Structures are given as C-alpha cells and as structure tokens.
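Pair request: fold both.
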Amino acid sequence: MGYSIAEAARTSGLSIDTLRYYERINLLDPPARDAAGRRSYSDEDLAWLSFLTRLRTTGMPIRRMREYASLRRRGIASAGRRKAILVEQRAAVADRIAELQACLEVLDYKIANYEHLEQNIPAVQHEASA
C-alpha cells in the first residue's frame, strides 16, 4: 500500500518537513512516486521511520543515524557494524535509565518527606496553640 506524504507524516508522528529532511540527508531513501509524481511511502518506509524515531528517542545523534542508514543500504555485509552501533546506543540508554532511576529515588524520598511533614502539621499547629 502507498501512503501520501501527509499520511506518512500522520502515521509516523513526524512532520512533512521532517520526512523531506530525512530524505535530503539520506536517512530515508527517496520513496516511490505515484503516477502524478507525488511521494508514495510503503509499509517498509513507515517501519523504517518508526525505527528512526526510536533511535532519536534514545538520544542517538543524527550523524550516527546517518551512519547506520548508510550501513543498512550495504546489506548483510554491514550487520556487524550496525549491531555495534546499537550495542553502543543501548549502553548509553542503560546509563541514562540508571541516572533517571537515581533521580526518581531522590524525588520519591523528598515526596515521602513532605507527606510525613503534612501528616504532622495539624499536631504541631495544635501543640503550638496550646
């Protein structure tokens, strides 16, 4: 099935400008064209866009994404390097998750502390007025 650029944007959650940009910087292969010359994105294109979006969400730089996309075009011969890129990115994500987990623990501690204070406010105020 072919998707117009507007449909591809809506489905992928990316803007039309981003789709054109990804094509211009070679992250996305130029899509097929319909009889009128308009871009026609395939299900495979949309799956690739979904993967690119995930990579961006992990914080992967565009430069590294472009390297990955270039390697992808080379096929199976580049599988080892593509895997290495993903392993490196996974490590960076795991480090970020650990950092965020530590932040979450601090927030939980502070929230629990404030809840404890709030529970004891009426008793403290009552004692002060007595």
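--- second member of the pair ---
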Amino acid sequence: MTIADIKQNAQVKMDQSIAAFKNNLTKIRTGRANPALLDTIHVEYYGNHVPLSQVANVSLLDARTISVQPWEKGMGAKIEKAIRESDLGLNPASMGDLIRVPMPPMSEERRKEMTKIVRSEGENAKIAIRNLRRDANEAVKKLVKDKEATEDDQKRTEADVQKVTDKHIAEIDALVASKEKDIMEV
C-alpha cells in the first residue's frame, strides 16, 4: 500500500462516516414531520418483517402530519400497530385507506433530551473519524519502518491526514448545530 492509497482510503472512509452520521440524524425527531422518521419501523408482511416503505407509500400531508398509504387493503391495521408500538411515541389514526400520523409537539424537556442524543451521535461520529486518522497514521509509520517511505513523507502525510480529519470534524460540528437548531425551533 502506498502513501497515496493510505490518504485516499482515509478520505473515503471518513466520507462514509459522515454519510452514516447524516443517516442517523434523519432518524432523530425534530418538531417537524419527516417521512424518514418512519424508516426504522418494520411491519409483518406474510410472515416476514419488512421496512414500512416496502408495504406503503410514506409522505407528508403538512408540516406536522405524515401520511402512510398502504399498497394492500389488509395492511392498514398492521402498519398502525407497528407505528404505535415503535419507540417514537406516535399515535397513528386511520381514515379509510389512509393512515395519518400527527407529530405531537415536543416539550422543552424532550427537546433538550433530543439535543443530547444529537450531541452524542456527533461525538460517536468524531470518534470514528479520529480512529480512521489513527489507522492511516499507523499505516504510514509501518511504511517508514519497512523502509518503503521516508520520515519526511510520514510527516507530510500525517499533516495531510490531519487536515482531512479537521475538515470532517468541522462538518460534523456544523451538522450537529443545524440539527440542534431544528430541534429547538418551536
């Protein structure tokens, strides 16, 4: 493995960590309705547990209501039960074929809890980025030890990897701040 490979590998893995963090953030509830909130819900469908999005159309009716339109007639009750039993604290209501999922307003205490969760997720993402930096630096040290690279190469590479790390950590901080702003918005 060359120094260029090590840098490229670190960059790609850090980008993947950011993508995973963004995905985790979509699942954290804000004051507004978001169809991605129901992505974690699985429904029993002919003996298998499948994601809600595979048995129904999930969309927004308005800023505080998600609509779930089952593709099959008999699925409404199962979908409603799955949403109610999830840990999201939602109470769906059937209106014929359509299931309305109103987003109850969050209390100030709940908003603060959610910001703590966001910060925790952000810290976990930062730890993942730092671990990738450490792995890249160790790989470069191994190249120097095996005399495949010079110590100057090592110092340059470590500085480059640190710049990439700083950029990704700043992106995580910006995402956390943005999500906290969304949560605290009434």
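Observation on the second member. The domain at 3-27+107-184 is CATH 1.10.132.20 (Topoisomerase I; Chain A, domain 4).
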